Amino acid sequence: MDSGWRYRVASVAGVVVLTAVAVALVNNATIQSIATTIPILSRLPTDPPTGPEFTIELLVTIAVVVSVFLPLYKPRPRRILDAIALAQKRVLVAALVLATIGYFDYSYKLPRLTVVLVTPLLLVALPAWFVWIRKRPSSNGERTIVVGDNLRVIDEVASVVNGTLLRYLCPTSVITTIEQTEAIADGGTNPSGLERLGGLSRIEDVLVEYDIDTVVLAFEHADRAEFFGALDACYEYGVNAKVHRDHADSVLTASGGVGTLVDVEIEPWDIQDYILKRAFDIAFASAGLIALSPVIVGIVVAIKLEDGGSILYRQDRTAVFGETFSIYKFRSMIENAEDETGAKISDEDAGGVDPRVTAVGRVLRQTHLDEIPQLWSILRGDMSVVGPRPERPVLDSDIQTGVVDWQKRWFVKPGLTGPAQVNHVTGKEPGEKLRYDIEYVRDQSFSYNMKLVSRQVWSVIIDIIMVHRNH
């Protein structure tokens, strides 16, 4: 892929053509007759439109699907699982939009049978198309760039790279400093004869423009924000990431790796485990929201009756690679509790009493029921059921100044629970919490997740029983 425009044109054209073919196919009278032999579809009328009506139906469907797929036209070449999941979500949204249009405006109404039949076709065809156009010709060999913040490390790494090494990226500030202290003729700004492509802010453009297969990270320290930013770009664009063995850590790299350069385990799960883990997340969160719906109603009423304030409280939390996302909790403190104190770890985490916590909030915290809204974050994919508990960005910054390697928790998706929570370790003990979280990063597996979930559910049940007895 020489440029992003080629991908954009191919993706839009594919959506248009495949949608048109699917609509034409399901409007065939024979196809509809066969479909209505299925009991669940037998009550739907077989009334495929013809002439101008069919043209309107076709154009409306194409317009809706093309519009809904707008976020997928940005080149993200090789994240196969993400491509499939995102495309299928967009198909379902398009089906909902088409059904809504038909409900409110009969002039552009698609027959119900058409919507029902075209949806499964697009659920297969469009994800397959987006996966296929992400495949690159292999005749050019593996294309590699070096990304780092230290020219000495970049030069060391570049000398051991196999394959087609194109150029390198490093901060402009590094080049400026070198130019002020060294002569360019001495090689200070030209590691291994490579040309610099620009600063770290260009990494996403470079990955697409040069169709990069592998990024070799050459950072002097693998716990800085720039390192995680580069790693996040590799994750988003499906590019392999490697590090020099001398600049790696066992938490970051694939086990059993050989050679000087070793793979960074951006996604340490096998595909089967990844799908199983995500399926469990969806099933657990869905079942939890349904089963706890009466409890949710009771909590809403209790919070309102106590002080009439807001039901939910929104917080930003740190996600994979230092990104942030929003979570919601049932409000357990007085309104605007942090206006004077700012963000801080609750005194309850250290076994004390936090005067900001309301009476209802104290019960919610003791029973962990204030965390119920986070099941929605799990459904959205921002969190998993099991993983390092996400901290607030401002608290993360404070902890990093006193706890070495704290950022290594960012290598897996944050979770509703994890080994630290199961062992009753809170943010008041960041060193101990980190030890448990790093253990999870190293040893994570689906069976390990199930053990942690079982222990956490049992712990919550015991806490609820104890609170009931005390009240």
Automatic annotation (TrEMBL):
User: Where exactly are the transmembrane stretches of this chain?
Assistant: 12-34, 54-73, 80-104, 110-133, 282-303
Task: List the Pfam families hit by this protein, alphabetically.
Answer: Bac_transf (PF02397)
Q: Which InterPro entries match?
A: Bact_transf
Going by the entry's taxonomy, the superkingdom of the source organism is recorded as: Archaea
Task: List residues of the Bacterial sugar transferase domain.
Answer: 277-461
Q: Please identify the protein, giving its name as recorded.
A: Sugar transferase
Please verify whether the record's keywords include Cytoplasm.
Answer: no
User: What is the organism field in this record?
Assistant: Haloarcula marismortui (strain ATCC 43049 / DSM 3752 / JCM 8966 / VKM B-1809) (Halobacterium marismortui)
Q: What GO terms are given for molecular function? A: phosphotransferase activity, for other substituted phosphate groups
Q: What keywords appear on the UniProt entry?
A: Membrane, Transferase, Transmembrane, Transmembrane helix
